[in-house]
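Escalated from tier 1: adenosine monophosphate holo job.
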Amino acid sequence: MAQTFQNIRGTFDILPEASTTDGTTIAGSAAWQFVESTIRRVLSRFNLVEIRTPILEDTELIARGVGQHTDIVTKEMFAFERGEDHYVLRPEITAPVMRAYLQHHLQQRGGAQKLFYIGPCFRAERPQKGRYRQFHQFGCEVIGAEDPRADVEVIASMLAVYEELGIGRNELRINTLGSPETRPVYVDALKAHFEPHRARLSDVSRNRLDTNPLRILDTKEGNERELVAKAPRLIDFVDEESRAHYDQVKTLLDDLDIVYTEDPFLVRGLDYYTHTAFELENPALGAQRALAGGGRYDLLARDLGASRPVGAVGFAAGIERLFLALQAQNVVLPGTPVPDVFLVALGDVAARWVFREAQRLRREGLRVALDLKGRSMKAQMREADRQKAPSTLIVGDDELAAGVVQMKNMGSGDQIEIPISEVNAYVRGLRTETTTR
Ligand code: AMP
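Tier 2 regenerated the structure:
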C-alpha cells in the first residue's frame, strides 16, 4: 500500500470547510480569515499597528525573555541546532517583539510604541482539546509607557476583540506583582510559608519551591490549593508606588465600566512581569478556559540587554480558544465563499469565449467560476448548483454567433437572454460582498 502522511500530532490543517481533528472542530479558512480580520480591525481602532517577527528565533532570546525556570523553556521548546547556531520555533511573541523594538530602535518613531501581532507559536505540550503544539496567538505590546493608562488600554483592546465577535460571559481577573525591589521579600515570605510543608508538596511544587516559588501559586492540586489560600498575599508586600499604580489601574477600569475581580494569587508563568497582571477566562471552556493573559513587563528589556528598563505592557491571546468560545456560544461564522457567477459553455468556440470572459469579469472584481474539466453542460450546471452560484451565464456556439447569452437565476430558475454587449452591466449587478455557502 502506498504510504500516506498525516499532519503532526498537536498541529492541524485549516481546510476550506470546517473539519474535525482529534475530536475538535477546526474552523474553515473563511472563518479564520474573518476572525483574523476582525482582530486586525478592532486592534487598529486602538491605534495599534501590526508587527511581524520571524517564527525562528535565537534560543537564548527565548530562554532569557521567557525565563530559564518556566515550563516553556525547560520542557516545551522546539529547539534545534545547525552548526554553531541555536534556533527555536517561537513559543510566544512578546520576547521577539521586544527584541525587534530594541534592535530597530523603534522608540525613535516617537511616543509609546503600540504594536500588535498575530501568528503561529509552538510549544511541545501534551496535545488535547484547545491545546496544540502549533497554535496561534494574537496580542499587543505597548512599549515605552509606564502610565497605568497603558495597562488599561491593553486590557480594553483585548476585551474589544471578544466583544466585537459576540463572545460574552468572560471573566477578567487582575492582580499586582509589585516592583522588582519588593518581589524578593515576598518570595522569601512564600518560601517560609511553604518550607514547613515541603514533604506534602508534589514533585513539581517542591521543585518550584527551589527555583520559582511564585509558580506554586499556580498549582491545580487540591491539597496544595488549601496551602495557597493561607499563603501570604503579594498585595501586603508591595510598595507605595506599586499600590498607587494598581489603584489607578482599578479606577481606570471602573471608568471604562470594565468588570473584573481581584485575585491576590494570580501570577503569570513568565518571569519578567511587574505590577499589573491579568487573565481572561471563559468558564464555559472548562480545562481550556484561559482565553488570554498579560501584564506589565518592565524588566524584559533589561533582561534582553537594554541598558535600562523600558516600561511595557501587553496581552497574548489564543485564537483556538477564541474559536472554542465562539462555538460554545453558537456564533455563526462565514462559510466558504460562493462565486458571484458560474460561466457555462456549450461547444468549443463558446468554451474559449467563456475562458476569456471569465478573466475579463475577474478584472471587474467578480468572483467567477467555470468548468476546468471539459464536462457536459448538464454536469456544468450541476457543478454551479453544488457551488451555490446564485447565477449562471450560459453560452453556446450558436448563441455566440448571434451575439447573445443566457443568464439564469439559480434560485428562481428564471432565465433571460441578453445581448453580449450588456453582460458587463448585468453581471456588475450580481456582485456581492461576501456571500457564503
Ligand atoms: P501564554 O503565552 O502562556 O500566556 O498564553 C496566552 C494564551 O495563549 C493562553 O491564554 C491560551 O489562550 C493560548 N495558548 C497557550 N498555549 C496554548 C496551546 N498550547 N494551545 C492553544 N492555545 C494556547
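The pocket of adenosine monophosphate is lined by residues 92, 123, 125, 130-132, 135, 137, 290-293, 316-318, 320-321 (CB under 6 Å).
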